[in-house]
Amino acid sequence: MSNMASHPPLFYLASQSPRRVELLQQLGFRFEKLCIDIDEQRNPGELPEPFVSRLANEKALAGYACLSDKRPLNSIDSTDNGISNVDRNTENSVILAADTVVAIDDTILGKPSDRAQAEQMLMALSGKTHCVYTGVAVLSKAADAPSYTMQTIVSKTEVRFRTISASEVKWYWESGEPADKAGGYGIQGLGAIFVQSINGSYTGVVGLPVYESCELLKRVGLTPGVFYAQ
């Protein structure tokens, strides 16, 4: 990892989530977004924490394969409106991937497929405490290393919802916000009005726990507010 210390690694995000992109941009990171596609089916009996950890790892590996196969990239640059001059390379590179699920006990609530499912999810959350798990994986490949290394963490946050009325659920669905959100709500948007309290990482509920992610990235030579590629 000595090479990474003297020459900061190239940074890639293996995620299509606009919320993860926004959080990393707010921190001043410069990176490119990798287009990946993996099977996100839950294994029989798989609990939420190992589930998000496994998917984060698999997304990072898919990102590594994307670089190796020279597939198309989507450039994301926080300083020049998406025009990036980061060289594509698997050497001296870092790939970050994440996965988030909402769970009541061990029941995972995914993205609602329609209005009825969204309403069912929100009423199940009403007046109760649920957990949001976000797994983060950081895959790094130093130029002088024979293979990559993988580091993974899981952030768990308890979220308490106030009691929600049926009319509020109807209004919320019609806002359009729940359709692409795990658990049928977005804490960073209108869904915040349902949240009574949280215990844990707010940004973990959004989709990328900032503290934990930055700790992993610092171990491989990436720190917030510093731009890397020339």
Essential attributes:
single chain; 230 residues; alpha+beta; Maf protein; 8-stranded mixed β-sheet; 8 strands; 25% strand; disordered N terminus; disordered C terminus
Task: Indicate the topology.
Layout: H1 2-6, E1 10-13, H2 18-26, E2 31-34, H3 48-69, E3 73-76, E4 93-104, E5 107-109, H4 115-125, E6 129-141, E7 149-161, H5 166-174, E8 195-199, H6 202-206, H7 210-219
Parallel strand pairs: 1-2, 1-4
Antiparallel strand pairs: 2-3, 4-5, 4-6, 6-7, 7-8
The second-level CATH architecture is Alpha-Beta Complex
Order of helices and strands: HEHEHEEEHEEHEHH
Q: Tell me the β content.
A: 25-35%
Question: How many helices?
Answer: 7
Tally of DSSP β-strands:
8
Low-confidence stretches: 1-5, 72-87, 226-230
Q: Give the end-to-end Cα distance, rounded to a whole number of Å.
A: 20 Å
The first-level CATH class is given as: Alpha Beta
Whole-number radius of gyration? 18 Å
Could you please say which CATH topology applies here? Answer: Maf protein
Number of domains: 1
What portion of residues is helical?
Answer: 25-40%
Query: Globular, elongated, flat, extended or rod-shaped: what is the shape?
Result: elongated
Q: What is the residue-averaged pLDDT? A: 85
Largest sheet: 8 strands, mixed
Structure classification: alpha+beta
Written description of the protein model:
Strands 1, 2, 3, 4, 5, 6, 7 and 8 form an 8-stranded mixed sheet that branches. A hairpin with a 2-residue loop joins strand 4 (93-104) and strand 5. Helices cover 31% and strands 25% of the residues. The longest helix has 22 residues, at 48-69. It is built from 7 helices and 8 strands. With 230 residues, the chain is an alpha+beta fold.
